Fold this sequence. Notes:
The chain has 9 helices and 7 strands. The longest helix has 25 residues, at 210-234. The chain has helices spanning 20-26, 28-31, 36-49, 99-110, 121-135, 158-161, 179-185, 201-206, 210-234, and strands spanning 3-12, 57-66, 72-77, 83-85, 91-96, 115-118, 155-157. It is α/β, with parallel strands linked by helices. A 7-stranded mixed sheet has the order 4-5-3-2-1-6-7, with helices on both faces.
Amino acid sequence: MAKLVFDIETSSLPLEHFDEAQQEYLFRDxxxxxxxxxxxxxxxxxxxxxxxxxxxxQVVCIAMLNADTxxxxxxxxxxxxxxxxxxxxxxxxxxxVDEAExxxxxxxxxxxxxxxxxxxxxxxxxxxxxxxxxxxxxxxxRKDWLGYRFQTEPHCDLAEQLTFYSVSGRDGAARxxxxxxxxxxxxxxxxxxxxxxxxxxxxxLAEGKHREIAEYCLRDVKATxxxxxxxxxxxxxxx
Length: 239
């Protein structure tokens, strides 16, 4: 059964994209605070969080790998066309003129796979791309990735599997850690090892460093695939 491992990178839309009423709604919590320092801190926090919301951010990159062959494709938005493979020729980097083209290309690939593997895809990646696709009127080829939670087909979310579906809550033995932490614990090279993190996406995009974003996203997917292999060999089947 073909399995697609993927990850997305997102970037917040400019504030000018939103009208006065929308901006008032976004920053409403700030106005309830009397202390100016607290108000500024909360505003900064909201500005950073916009990357996480599909109504205030966009998809700028999706990296994909076949779990069996390690071959794949990285789609990323860029002002000019950039298309080439990695050094080993196993991964194709494809630039897209805009987010709609990127999502269209993603759904064309996704329909060929029976199963997907993600890290926190149920909580973030999948609902994000569903909603962004709907907003841009991009046809969605797979609408079953948020189905029954307690199964690994058609969607194996490693964040769910490594916490046994949050069996012990926020602070128990199976509490959730981020991908970087799991990678280091299991001896996998962290995708952050080259100095780039998800917090850098906005600045990299502003600097036109589209390929750096694409390569970081691919490192996320490679780490997720290795983590999936460990989970499959050592933990799959525990109930």
